Automatic annotation (TrEMBL), chains A, B:
The reaction(s) this protein catalyses: 7-aminomethyl-7-carbaguanine + guanosine(34) in tRNA = 7-aminomethyl-7-carbaguanosine(34) in tRNA + guanine
GO terms classed as biological process: tRNA queuosine(34) biosynthetic process
tRNA-guanine(15) transglycosylase-like domain: residues covered: 17-372
Protein name according to UniProt: Queuine tRNA-ribosyltransferase
Function: Catalyzes the base-exchange of a guanine (G) residue with the queuine precursor 7-aminomethyl-7-deazaguanine (PreQ1) at position 34 (anticodon wobble position) in tRNAs with GU(N) anticodons (tRNA-Asp, -Asn, -His and -Tyr). Catalysis occurs through a double-displacement mechanism. The nucleophile active site attacks the C1' of nucleotide 34 to detach the guanine base from the RNA, forming a covalent enzyme-RNA intermediate. The proton acceptor active site deprotonates the incoming PreQ1, allowing a nucleophilic attack on the C1' of the ribose to form the product.
Catalytic-site annotation from UniProt: D95, D271
Note on cofactor: Binds 1 zinc ion per subunit.
Listed SUPFAM superfamilies: tRNA-guanine transglycosylase
Species assigned in the record: Xylocopilactobacillus apis
Annotated family: Belongs to the queuine tRNA-ribosyltransferase family.
Subunit structure: Homodimer. Within each dimer, one monomer is responsible for RNA recognition and catalysis, while the other monomer binds to the replacement base PreQ1.
Residues reported in the UniProt entry to bind substrate: D95, S96, G97, G98, F99, D149, Q194, G221
Length: 382, 382
């Protein structure tokens, strides 16, 4: 298929699976590896669109379930789509809505056909199927859409996981067929590779999905309680069986070390609520580990959150001031730390990209890990 | 005295007491009439300094009591003063701290010497006197400082009010003497005219204070429960007895109609928490009256908050989107409406200034009042 979402490979790292490239959309071309801020309810919490652009965000993620439940995808459609609704002219990625239907809603019934549940706000009975998920995402007019998949726990046994993988493949195909009927020309649909920690099932899932020719491939079912080593192992054998000419997206991962280790294993795109979620408690990601700004030791600390950061927050505000904002429950505190954390991860991805281009990714990783305070063993053993 | 805060009269209105001018500070010259956003705890709630500049704020107000109690004026002093602490390079006006000592704290003792109270956070015993108020404001290094005054209820009888006015004058003199010892060269001190609704006492207060030669004069004890007519009457006889070459500041007033009617009675500067406070509940000030964005009727309303406004919020976001932000308790909603409301009042002051220069202030007032929905009687009778 000639999808409007394309991937251009720029350089493969000589010693790892890492790659520098670009993702091409009808709303511009953006460099990868990339971290996507999460705008759950059509807003990246506390950030304006101007903030997101100034910190270097490319694509942002919006949750389909939330838009569907409130204000309703029909309202968004009437507004002219999500881009118009939230005034964001760069690309938007929407998830399938399945994760929230599983985790937030009161689940009623779960069959081959789809998922019946009561929504978490009104209690209204709703029905989510692969077709409904795609139709809603079509109405939202996101640039990158996700297929509805089955979320099986990482440690499920082979039989259980095999059933989940096979249903995920059938649902992916149903979603693709729906998109061919109701999709918009700027939209690309991704399939989601599942299979937990079972290598043969990850391979089966990837084979099924690549045979259907999606615009890109997501790696799902990770960052759900498995160890980092287990996650890294899955990535190491999964990305090599995905097509080189399509983008690869690791869902829900947002720590600095996991981002770097994911890139090293061939991932292009990441998303996570982590940077904005911990910011709301006053925790900043810095080059020297996390800073918990509420700690009394920052009361008279007039240095920036992160001495090595050149973001607006770090150029303009001190730890003492930001601590005072948090002590007083002032919104600006959340905003300043959210901005910094999102800048930290988007900037990290730009540094990682440069390291790939400069052929020194592993050296960059080791230096970063040691400074950040990950243990030496982790830093040196890749 | 040769204060670093000066007032330059540009034009007096031919039919009212209104005047267009400039307030000169060591941190720039700003046009009056002016509305000052309130940054209670060294932050105008939900706004960044960049936002404040882009919406046209000149001077902002910070509350001395809050800085004194947390983080402590010593921390602010160590940071290099309030400007450094909060990274605001335009002028800052601080109040005396008396209002919060009266209203927030557990008041213990109130004498000629000063006010003993327990602070509202730690319960620590604290002592506020005219000298302490000035010393704290000196440490904060605000550009415009207020004398500690006595807050007597508007309807207090003549005897009671006379005592309050006379003590306010003595306290003003003590504060001025303190400033001569510990003040900084960029700081100007204002006296506060009290007297409630007693004309002779307002005159006595103004006479006492002008004999001491302050950098400017505040009008206090208004917007505390009296009617708008009563407030306007007090202004009408108070501003004419204040020196023409000094700025006049009406404390704590922030509705559009009161701002216009205050200017018409010779006021140059206003402040109020109203625009940001009502924004946090989703109430927008618009040219056609208030918009309560949580109302269901805005669910699919894709027009801006205020059709006649060209602020960032109104140029970029719809009522439906902002309503969705408030429905979801998203911080960005508060931020967008706060920005609009502050823009609305600062822009209104620019329009009023232009109307003075164009000699059509009363016509502007009538048109504004009628559109805003104030009753016709109010609109036509000045």
């Amino acid at each position: 298929m000639d999808w409007p979402i394309k991937y251009r490979l720029e350089k493969k790292d000589s010693r790892t699976l890492a790659r520098a490239g670009e993702i091409v959309t009808t709303r511009g071309t953006y460099q990868t590896p990339m971290f996507m801020p999460v705008g759950t309810q059509a807003t990246v919490k506390s950030m304006s669109n101007g903030d997101l652009k100034s910190l270097g965000a490319g694509i942002i993620l919006v949750n389909t379930y939330h838009m569907w439940v409130r204000p309703g995808e029909n309202v968004v459609k009437k507004a002219g789509g999500l881009h118009q609704f939230m005034n964001w002219d760069q690309p938007i990625l929407t998830d399938s809505g399945g994760f929230q239907a599983f985790s937030l809603a009161d689940l009623r019934n779960f069959t081959e056909e789809g998922i019946k549940f009561k929504n978490h706000l009104s209690g209204d009975e709703m029905f989510m199927s692969p077709e409904v998920s795609i139709k809603v995402q079509n109405d939202l007019d996101s640039d990158i859409m996700m297929s509805l998949d089955i979320l099986e726990p990482f440690y499920s046994d082979h039989d259980q996981m095999k059933k989940a993988v096979e249903r995920t493949s059938r649902w992916a195909e149903r979603g693709l067929n729906q998109h061919l009927k109701t999709g918009l020309p700027d939209q690309g649909l991704f399939g989601i590779v599942q299979g937990g920690g079972h290598r043969d099932l990850r391979e089966q899932s990837a084979r099924d999905l690549t045979s259907m020719d999606f615009a890109g491939y997501s790696i799902g079912g990770l960052s759900v309680g498995e160890t980092k080593d287990e996650m890294n192992e899955v990535l190491s054998y999964t990305t090599p069986i995905l097509p080189e000419n399509k983008p690869r997206y690791l869902m829900g991962v947002g720590t600095a070390d996991s981002l770097i280790d994911g890139v090293i294993r061939g991932v292009d795109i990441f998303d996570c609520v982590l940077p904005t979620r911990i910011a709301r408690n006053g925790t900043a990601m810095t080059h020297h580990g996390r800073v918990v700004i509420k700690n009394a030791k920052y009361h008279e600390d007039f240095s920036p959150l992160d001495l090595e950061c050149d973001c607006d927050t770090c150029r303009n505000y001190s730890r003492a001031y930001i601590r005072s904002l948090f002590s007083n429950h002032e919104i600006l505190g959340i905003r300043l730390v959210s901005y910094h954390n999102l800048y930290f991860l988007t900037h990290l991805m730009r540094q990682v990209r440069q390291a790939i281009l400069d052929d020194n990714l592993l050296e960059f990783r080791q230096e970063f890990f040691e400074k950040y305070g990950f243990n030496k063993k982790n830093a040196k053993n890749f």
